[in-house]
Description:
Blueprint: H1 3-10, H2 49-67, E1 72-73, E2 76-77, E3 79-82, E4 87-90, E5 93-95, H3 100-121, H4 124-129, H5 131-147, H6 150-158, H7 163-188, H8 194-203, H9 208-228, H10 230-236, H11 239-242, E6 253-256, H12 258-261, H13 286-289, H14 310-322, E7 329-332, H15 334-339, H16 343-350, H17 353-374, E8 379-385, E9 392-393, E10 399-409, E11 415-422, E12 428-429, E13 434-437, E14 442-451, E15 459-469, E16 474-484
Antiparallel strand pairs: 1-2, 3-4, 4-5, 6-7, 8-10, 9-10, 10-14, 11-13, 11-15, 12-14, 15-16
Helix pairs in contact: 2-5, 3-17, 5-7, 5-9, 7-9
This protein binds iron/sulfur cluster (2 copies).
Amino acid sequence: MSDSKSSVLKNIPITVSKAPIEPPPGADAELVSLYQAHKKIYPRSVSGLFSRWRWALVFLTQIVFYGLPWLEWGQRQAVLFDLGARRFYIFGLVLYPQDFIYLTGILVIAAYSLFLFTAVAGRLWCGYACPQTVYTEIFLWLEKLTEGDRSARMRRDAASWTAEKFGRKAAKQFLWIAVALWTGFTFVGYFTPIHTLAGEFAQWELGSWEIFWTFFYAFATYGNAGFMREQVCKYMCPYARFQSAMFDKDTLIVTYDKDRGEPRGARSKKADLSTLNLGACVDCSLCVQVCPTGIDIRNGLQYECIGCGACADVCDTVMDKVGYARGLVKYTTEHALEQRWTKAQTISHVFRPRVLIYTTILLAVVLAMSISLAIRIPFKVDVVRDRGSLARIAEGGKIENVFRIQVMNATESTQHFHISVEGMPDLTVASEQDTVIESTQSRWIPVRLQLPYEGAEPGSHTIHFKIDAPDLGKGVTEKAVFIVPR
Ligand code: SF4
Ligand code: SF4
């Protein structure tokens, strides 16, 4: 702020009133909270096509998550992210911090998959595979197992405490905590060998960070899936905020067919729809009761909708019961609804340029990463000049340069390496040319290069080290500089 401005501000008299702020005359003086009171949601269980898909994904993702750390690959865990040793083991692959590019590739693939799925069918990830959805589904199933379905749970929560209520709630908590702890234990099992971890758990000899992460992850699972549930999706998840930017009028979303459903209203099952002044919606509110985020899909697309399809499933069962055509609530696009497209027309419009571009980029990245992994050289070389002496005269009057070469054996077997040099006539390796390095180990090797006196003009000469691994049939060439002093 300029001096003139600050001096003007200094001269303005500021008075602070302690009197309560009065509303303007005629205004409503009601105090309005900016925060909505939380209303507990009791989602009703549902069965149908989308529910089966969700459960299939729950099984698939959890079999992979809980099962993978127990898989063995040779003498070690098949998938292990050993942060201490800075090595990631993924089946036959051992990745080092230098392989960071592959992590970038995985992130790019994940991002484009999300773009693609969202452009095709909205929040597919949220509705079917997101851990928040998956664990909420599991916790809801345990809740139903111990406390019954929606109406029984609502009745019990409203009633006073009895031994039966206490027993059921205790059983639910026990199961929730067991699942949460097992989830936390499994998570840590990806970073520390799970067999060792299990032994440490049995004898309660865990390290402090293992205790912290097991309980932290368990607590997060328990809190998010048991209590926070839809609030995580509504208020905490950033993806919910920007996913609508990836939608367009050809994106498949769960939609209520207003033209067909309205005016909604109850009617007798035997009533003839054509003689009633009503649409197909019987206003049973089941679509609201099954919704895990507690919204009414009949109010149109809302950011709270995670696209799980539960309302579509339940509405189909209602349509079946009253004898109307299914699909009052269904996956469809805005364009399809407006123009009353058939299923085939709708699907043909889903594969539009945007989707094809995402698919092409995704396939290109997957292909590039697969090729890169297939031709990856399983050892790494780093050449460093000895800082102590740039060049010196060695025994026999030869010019000598000293280097240090780091060779990292990224394979899981002992490897033999051979070091040679090229780039100057008569340049030879005067130190040991062959070395053996244990599996997943690295070593600094001092290398002395010698050139006959007056073998080259004074100055810097580009040379190339060749490090070959004969058993692997692969070699690496590294550039360096040989200095001939004046
Ligand atoms: S489930 Fe179907 S029929 Fe029932 S209220 Fe919802 S949209 Fe209407
Ligand atoms: S509105 Fe339907 S699709 Fe959206 S979250 Fe609720 S039940 Fe799932």
